[in-house]
Amino acid sequence: MENSPLFWAGFVVFVLAMLLLDLLVLNRKAHVVRMREALGWSAFWIALSLSFNYLVYRTMGHQAGLEFLTGYLIEKSLSVDNLFVFLLIFSYFKVPPQYQHKILFWGIIGALVLRAAFILAGAALLAKFHFLLYLLGAFLVYTGVKMAISANDPEIDPESNPIVKFLGRHLPITNRIDGPEFFLRRNGVLFATPLFVVLVMVETTDVVFAADSIPAILAVSRDTFIVFTSNVFALLGLRAMYFALAGLMRLFHYLHYGLSLILVFIGGKLLLSEYVHIPMGVALGTVGVILFGSVLLSVLFPKTEKPLQ
């Protein structure tokens, strides 16, 4: 394989084929995604990701295989924060469950395009300016600390979103959800629906989270193919994971701190790379232990609800 243009093209064709299969065949009609269906698709995407990981290991070597798995695990775990915010957005706008899959589908397509641009730009800058590695490490440590001390329950305020403000000023928007469409034409006038506003919120939220996750994976691997494919597989399974974990995400209250610790660890690994070499296997094990420990603590010590005043 050796990171050839042919394999890049083959991977992109594969991703497009899976997205078309999802849109035109499996989810052509809007429906409520049940737990059993979501768990089945989650298992499918995880199995497919691990199969690709094995392909990377066999064709690109042991180190590349570990880098892909570590990047995939980091991106997958950081996605949990995305899912929680998506849940808040859907609740705020009262999006019916049968339309949530469509929003997530188009949101992920937009995320794939934006992240590809971020990855290519970031990898090119790191290759040209070595000192950026230390800035990247410091940024990850700062982000991890900020995540740890911030509130676990982010507020959703569409009125403060600059892109939503721009849409409100320049585009007529209907005041209620009436069907699965993003746009409606009434009396010759094109209106955006609240579902389009939700889609914009999902996209801009992902851009914010990409500012954390892309640097974290670039800190693990400088190979753009490894970084991009691990991101893609994590994103492709994001919708299924959302519907599988929608009712459980609030239970994993210590995961937030686990994710912050992972960012601090990866950032510290970069800052000390000139003096201390941490093998990729050790880094992967550390990330896995932190994730498992934070989930276990969440189960053993459930969050107590504050009594009503």
From TrEMBL:
<feature type="transmembrane region" description="Helical">
    <location>
        <begin position="103"/>
        <end position="125"/>
    </location>
</feature>
<protein>
    <submittedName>
        <fullName>TerC family protein</fullName>
    </submittedName>
</protein>
<dbReference type="InterPro" id="IPR022369">
    <property type="entry name" value="Integral_membrane_TerC_rswitch"/>
</dbReference>
<dbReference type="InterPro" id="IPR005496">
    <property type="entry name" value="Integral_membrane_TerC"/>
</dbReference>
<keyword id="KW-0472">Membrane</keyword>
<feature type="transmembrane region" description="Helical">
    <location>
        <begin position="69"/>
        <end position="91"/>
    </location>
</feature>
<feature type="transmembrane region" description="Helical">
    <location>
        <begin position="223"/>
        <end position="242"/>
    </location>
</feature>
<keyword id="KW-1133">Transmembrane helix</keyword>
<keyword id="KW-0812">Transmembrane</keyword>
<feature type="transmembrane region" description="Helical">
    <location>
        <begin position="189"/>
        <end position="211"/>
    </location>
</feature>
<feature type="transmembrane region" description="Helical">
    <location>
        <begin position="254"/>
        <end position="272"/>
    </location>
</feature>
<feature type="transmembrane region" description="Helical">
    <location>
        <begin position="38"/>
        <end position="57"/>
    </location>
</feature>
<feature type="transmembrane region" description="Helical">
    <location>
        <begin position="6"/>
        <end position="26"/>
    </location>
</feature>
<dbReference type="Pfam" id="PF03741">
    <property type="entry name" value="TerC"/>
</dbReference>
<comment type="similarity">
    <text>Belongs to the TerC family.</text>
</comment>
<feature type="transmembrane region" description="Helical">
    <location>
        <begin position="278"/>
        <end position="301"/>
    </location>
</feature>
<feature type="transmembrane region" description="Helical">
    <location>
        <begin position="131"/>
        <end position="149"/>
    </location>
</feature>
